[in-house]
Amino acid sequence: MILKIILFFKQYAFEWLLMLFSVGIPFALDMGPAFYGILATFFIFLTLRRLSYWSFFVVFLFVLITCVLFLPQIIWFGHPPVTMIGAFFETDLQESKEFVQSLPLYSYAISLLTLLFGGYILYLGKKKTYLHNKKQNLITAVIAILAIGLTLYRPLAKMKEYQAFKWSASRTAIISFYASIYDNIQEYQALKEELSKGIEGTPTWQITATQPPYQNYVLIIGESVRKDYMHLYGFPEENTPFLDKAYGTVIDGYTATAPNTTASLLRSFMQMKGDKDFIYANNLISLAKNAGFETFWLSNQGLTGEFDTPIAKLAFLCDHKEFTKKGDYASMNYHDSILLPLFSKYLHKKSHSPRLFILHIMGSHVNFESRLEHPIHYNYYNRKISAYIQTIEQTDTLLKDIHELLQKNGDSFSILYFSDHGLMTQDRNSMFTSLTHGDTNPNKACYQVPFVLLSSDDTQHKVVKANKSAFRFLDGFAHWLGIQEASLRSDYDFLSPKNDTLKVFNQYENVPFEGLEEDEIMTNN
């Protein structure tokens, strides 16, 4: 009896393993498993093999390679939404290398095992033979019809809701995954084209008054800093010695709009109509320029191609712009201190107009150790977390140096520092624990960021505990610069103790911040 069972499984080993692989595909591609979708995938593969080994070989190998290549990032981030697709197009060679290095080794090990497993299925499929007679052809036809029916069922059922037939609605992972990637690319390209046309349009600002209290304004855009890893906000390691004591105001409660750079800054820096529509021409640069400010953009972030990323397009509106790396094959990993001589050069050029300097730094971008100018000197939890908290210390030093340059210059000034977004804990309580972008299922830590205002006439160190939403950034920005504009709230003050209603973009829609999960810091205890 046992021998018969063994022979039975051996005879149908190809089918059993093919079914097992079909079960794993939606998990490997983070598509959400459904029984009939798994069955449809299995039937598609089986139909192809019964018709021709080589047709099966080509399709199965393509799916296998997709799983192998996407698995490490799916394990770490999940299925890529449109904002992550955009990040892919905006990433240069250096950042791509850092992204690959930041993924844990076990994710690549799982990917390798998947490749070996799929290779064995291809080997068994080569050895498998199917008869081609009337009965077997009928069976193949029935399996093919079932595969088609199960694949088409959900897209047809959702046509009324979506007002279109969408392959991405299918529960058959090997269909819906590629369809969703295609849809996201199309959406990204459409957004990019809309941005290109809109940002170059004519702004509709109606400025009624401009009375800037300071000569020089410096907006420093931090990168990937969550406030709870800063000593300034209670973290046990003293990694913010300058900000801890600097005269100025610290906002405890500022919340970013989105969990990655582009999505966050676009929603902070551009005027919006409702929750989804951008008024691209109405942005912080056009506002400042229309109010008579001389504008500067100094960036240590990558630049891909000819100013073709959304943030670079915004920077291109400035009177003066400098990018430390061009985003091509020659891109290098420059430390943020490279911006200091550029900033000093422009600062010492006298101007009769008020000036706005925007410094976009790499800060605590993922692959933390590569951000550091000096060897890691912290010993906190593990090497990755230690490197992360040291990147924050390094940014604190940069802020100190900028503050000193402004003081030596002698003109009145105001510095605003905030981070574009935070990060979430990945692989908590394991040797692989790190922090990563919240591109899928972001939690509160992805939005809770530092916000500090330091001005030349400040005489004490203050902390204001208030909920402030980055969706209101343009209102506060105008108030900071002393600009009154008809469509912006002139009474909105970043430093006011009045709370904002907090909503955040979760990569798909705006949701209440309070509904998100907590994400505590890692501790050595």
Topology of this protein?
Blueprint: H1 2-11, H2 13-28, H3 35-51, H4 53-77, H5 82-89, H6 93-102, H7 105-127, H8 134-157, H9 159-162, H10 173-199, E1 207-210, E2 216-222, H11 241-245, E3 248-255, H12 261-269, E4 270-273, E5 277-283, H13 284-290, E6 294-299, H14 310-315, E7 320-323, H15 339-347, E8 355-360, H16 383-409, E9 413-419, E10 424-426, E11 434-436, E12 451-455, E13 461-469, H17 473-481, E14 483-485, E15 503-505, E16 510-512
Parallel strand pairs: 2-8, 2-9, 3-13, 6-7, 6-8
Antiparallel strand pairs: 1-14, 3-12, 4-5, 9-12, 10-11, 15-16
Short structural description:
The protein is an alpha/beta fold and 525 residues long. The protein is 45% helix and 16% strand.
Low-confidence stretches: 327-331
CATH topology of the largest domain: Alkaline Phosphatase, subunit A
Number of domains: 2
Query: Which structural class is indicated by helix and strand composition?
Result: alpha/beta
**Looking across the biggest beta sheet, what order are the strands in?**
7-6-8-2-9-12-3-13
Please identify which CATH superfamily of the largest domain we are dealing with: Alkaline Phosphatase, subunit A
Overall pLDDT score = 88
Measured between the Cα atoms of the first and last residue, the distance is 56 Å
Q: How many β strands by DSSP?
A: 16
**Globular, elongated, flat, extended or rod-shaped: what is the shape?**
elongated
Largest sheet: 8 strands, mixed
CATH class of the largest domain: Alpha Beta
Number of helices: 17
Q: Helical percent range?
A: 40-55%
Radius of gyration, in Å, reads 27 Å
The fraction of residues assigned to DSSP E strands is 15-25%
For the record, the CATH architecture of the largest domain stands as 3-Layer(aba) Sandwich
